[in-house]
Amino acid sequence: MAFTANLSLLVAAFLAAVAPVLSSPTVNEVDNRISVRSTADLGLPDPQPGKINCGIYNTADRPNAIQINFDLAENVNTCTTPPKTCRRHACWNTSGVFICNDSDLNVTLECGTVARFAGIIIDDCCRGKGAGLSGQVFSDQGWNAVVSYANCNHDRDADRPGMGPADNPWGPNGSCW
Length: 177
Known about the structure:
Mean pLDDT: 79
Radius of gyration: 20 Å
Helix content: 25-40%
Order of helices and strands: HEEHEEHEEEEHEEE
Low-confidence stretches: 3-42
Distance between the termini: 68 Å
Largest sheet: 5 strands, antiparallel
Oligomer: single chain
Number of strands: 11
Strand content: 25-35%
Strand order of the largest sheet: 3-10-11-7-6
Shape: globular
C-alpha cells in the first residue's frame, strides 16, 4: 500500500512539473517568435478539415501535386509556418503545397498532417479532364492548406498562392473544373 501511495505521489509530482512545459508555447531563441508545439507533442487530437474551396488559385499540375504530396507524406519532419503568412512546404516543377497560418503564433505540424490536408484537395477538387488543380481546405486550428501553382525557383516564403491575370487566370497548368 505504501509503495502505491509513493508511486502515486511520484507520478503526480512528475505531471505537475511537466504539464506547464507541454501546455505552453516555446520561444525561439533566434527570432523570439512563439511557436505552438505540434498537436501530437501536446497529446491533442489531430486537426480536422473543414470548409474546402476548389479552383480559387492558379493551378498546380495534378500528377506533380500527387507526387509531391506522396513525398510530403513520407517526410518525418515537422512543417512550421510563421504567423499571418503562407509558406510553401513542398514544390515540384510548377506545383506546390502551402500552409497558410491565420494565427498570431507559429504553427508547427507533422508534415504528414500537411499531406493529409493536401490529399483532400487532390481527391476532391478539379475533377475535370484537364491536369489543372487548385484548392484550399481549412483546419479547425486556425490554419489552412493550399495546393496551387508554385515557382520552385522562388524562396519558399516569397511564393504565394494567387490567381493570374484576367487573360490567363489559371496559369501554365490549365483550368480547374
